[in-house]
Structures are given as C-alpha cells and as structure tokens.
Amino acid sequence: MSDTTVAGTNETATAAKSGASATERFRTDKKAGAQADPERVNLLAREVIEAVHDTIRRHKVTYDEYNALKSWLISVGDDGEWPLFLDVWIEHVVEEVATEHREGNKGTIEGPYYVPNSPEQGAKGTLPMRDGESGTPLVWTGKVTSTSGQPLAGAKVEVWHADADGFYSQFAPGIPEWNLRGTFTADENGDFEITTIRPAPYQIPTDGSCGKLIAAAGWHAWRPAHIHVKASADGHELLTAQLYFPGDEHNSDDIASAVKPELILDPKPAGDHETIEYGFVLDPVRAESAA
Ligand code: DHB
Ligand code: FE
Q1: In a domain? residue 153
Q2: What gap in Å lies between CA 249 and CA 253, rounded to an integer?
Q3: Residue 281 domain-assigned?
Q4: Of 95, 148, 169, 231, whose CB neighbour count within 10 A is largest?
C-alpha cells in the first residue's frame, strides 16, 4: 500500500498511522487483561519465557541478535504496533482454541480495525460509502440461523472492510467516519441483504516495526481481500469472521493465517455488480458457559 495524500488535508494515509490508531482503539474498547488469574499468569508466562530460552539455546542466539530483538520490541511499542503484531501472528491460534467446540459457522480473527456501534441499516441496505466509491459493487444476501435450523429474527450482522486502496475508516485519515462500516438487523425470517463494494487485497503496515520484521525475515505483508463480520443473536455465541474471494493469490499464504475454506465466497457476476449468498449458523450459548 503506498502513501496516499488526502485531498484538502496535509495528512498522509500511512499504514503506520493506522497502527497507532489501532492502539488507541484497543485502549478505548477492550477491558484490557482485566482479571488474569495469578495461577494462569504463573503457568503461561513461565512457559512462554521457557520457550524463548529453548530457542536461544537451540540456535545459540548471540548478543547482537539479543540486542536487535530488544531494540525491535521497543520500537513496536513506540510505533503503536502491538495490536497489529498480535492480531497478525498470534490471534489466529487464540481464535482456534476459543471456537473449537462450535458446530455452527467457522469464524476467524477480528483484527485491529473493528469499531463497535456502526450505523444501523435495517435488514436491507447499502454500507455507508463515498460518492463514486471505487470497487465492483456487491449485493450480499444471507440468512442467520441457529444450529437447530431455526431462523434468528433480529440477529445483528456488523460489517466492516477496507476500501479499494486497502484503508479502513477511522484508522487512516481523510475517510468519512463510518465509511464501509454498518450494522444490519435480520428480518422476521432471519434474512438480510447488504450492498457494498469488493474490497482490495490488503498489505499490513510496511512502514513501521512489523514491516521491518517482514523485510528482515524476507516475508511478504499481504492479506487477501476480505470483508469482516460479526453476527450475533440473543442466546447465541457471537461469531467473528472474515469472508474471502476465490482466486485471491493470498488466500493460501495470508500473513495473518486467517483464511479457512468455509469462509471463501462464491460471487456470481450479475451485469454491473456481483451477487453473493452467504449466511451464518450460530451456536446457542451452552449451559455450562452461560453465566
Ligand atoms: C491486520 C489488518 C487486518 O485488516 C486484519 O484483518 C488483520 C490484521 C493488521 O494490519 O494487523
Ligand atoms: Fe482486515
């Protein structure tokens, strides 16, 4: 993703600025690590530290390498890129463990760019977007059901995605606040219809510390094009997912390891737009996990 100077402002939409905004957003929205159980902290912190010790011994890590690591860790914080680092390289395994009991829809990582309370669009509507927003128009229909097959009237479907340049509103400057973000409410049959545009493949920030790691290791920074979604209904587990497009070269080597075959759409051309059909099956909250 190259820098884009936003018309009428001095601001430049850089990826690293998106990273710093993601740190602020996390501080605002999440109850960060509120009440970790001391026994779990003891166990988990000790095992992670021991895993690092094992790597140092196995590969005979030098003082130069240790100091490079120290300097890099300091800069990840300075750049506000901890949310990016964690969501790209760690979150997918947390998601896997958290949802392994599910019978309904597969989910995947949330990533750093979710904003709660996006504007309500009813059961059928168009995501807020600029006049002439670039990208192929998409008309997406779907139904929200429970694992029993029962349609979930009133289910919420929150959608957010990048624009055709790979930028997210509220994280890159110069984009209207709720651009390509909205909340839909399924009708009495559990149905919804969402009109939007096809997002572009997305490069995670390359101009900050995560980018330095990627360059130093000779990796690439790409995520396939994706639409983020959270589907929720009373008495059901919140589903956080991303939907992908077939044929994207990064479906098989996503930097964030977040693609699953069940999440790949099947768009059908329809004149000047494409249609997609994709619904969600939500797991009822299990008795033992209900508070
Ligand atoms: C990142 C960005 C995303 O859009 C996403 O879905 C996951 C991770 C990131 O930049 O870290
Ligand atoms: Fe994303």
Answers
A1: yes
A2: 8
A3: yes
A4: 231
Residues near 173 by beta carbon (within 8 Å), at least 6 away in sequence: 6, 9, 11, 12, 13, 17
CB within 8 A of 253, min separation 6: which ones? 220, 222
211: CATH: 2.60.130.10
Angle at 178 between CA 200 and CA 194, to 5 degrees: 65
Transcribe 56-102 into DSSP letters: HHHHT--HHHHHHHHHHHHHHHHTT-HHHHHHHHTHHHHHHHHTTT-
Tell me how far the alpha carbon of residue 154 lies from the centroid of ligand 2, in angstroms: 26
Residue 163 DSSP code:
-
* Domain span including residue 203: 9-291
Q: Give the residue whose CA is nearest to atom 10 of ligand 1.
A: 204
For the chain, what is the largest distance between any 2 Cα atoms, rounded to a whole number of angstroms? 64
137 CB-side CA count, 13 A: 15
Rounded to the nearest angstrom, the distance between the alpha carbon of 50 and the centre of ligand 2 is: 32
Q: Is residue 4 part of a domain?
A: no
pLDDT tens track for 179-200: 999 999 999 999 999 999 999 8
Residue 221 in any domain: the answer is: yes
Ligand 1 within 6 A of CB of 214: no
Answer yes or no: is the C-beta of 88 below 6 A from any ligand 1 atom: yes
- Ligand 2 is an ion; residues with CB less than 5 A from it: 111
Binding site membership of 87 for ligand 1 (Cβ less than 6 Å): yes
Express each pLDDT in 87-123 by its tens digit: 999 999 999 999 999 999 999 999 999 999 999 999 9
Of all protein residues, whose CA lies closest to atom 9 belonging to ligand 1? 84
The total number of structural domains in the chain stands at 1
Q: Which residue has the tokens 């606040």?
A: 177
pTM assigned to the model: 0.90
- Which phi-psi region, left, alpha or beta, contains residue 218 (left: φ > 0; alpha: ψ -120 to 50)? left
